[in-house]
Write a structure and sequence with these properties.
Distance between the termini: 6 Å
Structural class: mainly beta
CATH superfamily: Nucleoplasmin core domain
CATH topology: Jelly Rolls
Strand content: over 45%
Mean pLDDT: 96
Number of domains: 1
Low-confidence stretches: none
CATH class: Mainly Beta
Order of helices and strands: EEEEEEEEE
Radius of gyration: 14 Å
Number of helices: 0
Number of strands: 9
Amino acid sequence: MARTAKNLAQGQLAGSTAAIYTAPASTTVIITGLTLTNSDDSTAYATNLYFVENGGSASDAKLFLNDKSMAAKETVDLATLPILDAGDSIHGDAATADKINYLISGVLVT
């Protein structure tokens, strides 16, 4: 089994729930880091992250970060992270679009 460490995804959370990373076919992904940063100077935003199995959809039952209030300029490094099988994904949303930045890193096992 080959293991490749890399940055997997980065961007900004949308105002509605959307996939931010999906594990590739024939691959297990060990998420080793997920950092969220509120880029706004003065406002706090509620943030949600979901673990969604292949073929599933985001729902309250799949939340692993629920309405986390992020203060202006706050950065959060998550300690408990999912392991994704092929097709599994992480979805996210924020109270306001384009204010919460994310960076996901991990190890691809093929």
